[in-house]
Amino acid sequence: MGQCNVLEKNGKRIPVTADDEVYVGLDVHKRSIEVTVRFNGQEVANWKHGGALQGLIGSLMPLQPAMKKVAYEAGPTGYGLCRVLQEAGLPGEVWPPGKVPKKANQGNKTDLLDSRDIAKYAEKDMVEPIVIPSEQEEAERQVMRTRDQLIKDIRGVKQQIKSFLLVHGVEEPEGLGGWAKKAVNKLLRLPLREELALCLQVKVQQLLHLQSLMKKIEKKVRELARSERHAEDEKILRSHPGVGRLTAMNFILEIYQPERFEVHRQVSTFVGLAPRVSQSGDRRQEGPLIKAGRESLRSMLVQAAWQWVGRDHRAYETYRRLCGNTGCSQKAIVGMARRLCVNLWCMLTRGEYYRPGG
Predict the structure, then answer these.
(1) Contact 28, 77 (CB under 8 A)
(2) Sign of CA dihedral 27, 28, 30, 34
(3) Where are the domains of the chain?
(4) Is the pTM above the cut of 0.90?
(5) CA distances from 131 to 116, 268, 319 (A)
(6) Residue 255 and residue 293: Cα distance in Å, rounded?
(7) Per-residue pLDDT tens for 120-170?
(8) Cα angle value 94/100/105 (rounded, 5°)
């Protein structure tokens, strides 16, 4: 039998040995965690934890000899809880919410019911967990994601400035279409009423501030590209036609631990470039793309695919063939982006430079 621990919850004392099987489902929120414990196929305890994570770990430690899984859905709280669980020797898992089974008739929804469902699904091994990035991988990935957010913020401020000029009947300075530096400076010298001049000045200064932050982020991306961890991988990916530093680094940082993917379909699905397949009998149809991955990475891969098609004769021939099959240039270029994604993954995992026709 080995050592026997005792779980004391809900007024019960449950002996636990290594011969037992325990699965724990967690519904995690900012200030509380709902906990459900299943013991040898039966639910034996549930409670709401509202304190520090170490208190939760302490309450689960008696279950450690028999613990098979401690699972929760990914959410705004990140991977911190899973790392704490794993450091304590508990088999923590984070699940992608989109892969967790949903009941046809949802009925009531509470934190307790959610934690119960997660515990049941864990016991039946129904969900493939997320591969948790290391803290360094997560920090580096955040640099590129911050760049993506800055791009959106800068685009938004530019739209606000143009809307401001249109609403108040002010003619745009020459060169503002390309947001030349001289044109932006002219905005500050436009003959406007004092109140309007102040409002426009605030927007222009906001734009200039965001652009200065973008320079800092892009400098950090260049430093990461030259770092010992990524320099060789970045050089390998840039050998592919159409792939520059930003595309290479975005791919490297988002596809962390690329060796975890076993086949190319898994990579294209992770990125969100795999079509949804519907098959019934002899009928097979490919639908829209499966919703997954980062939009910014897909966008970069599509742009790189256009460059690839323009530089590589073989790629252009493949693109023309896809255009003929689909009757749509947009679908064809997405197909080329999927091929590009798979090429980059193969190059990254094998450590091989691009070989035309290889």
Answers:
(1) yes
(2) positive
(3) 5-123, 135-226, 232-350
(4) no
(5) 23, 16, 34
(6) 10
(7) 999 999 999 999 999 999 999 999 999 999 999 999 999 999 999 999 999
(8) 150
Q: Which amino acid is at 123?
A: E
* CATH domain 5-123 topology: Nucleotidyltransferase; domain 5 (3.30.420)
The token duo for 174 is 């020459």
pLDDT tens-digit series, residues 253-294: 999 999 999 888 889 888 988 776 555 555 655 656 666 778
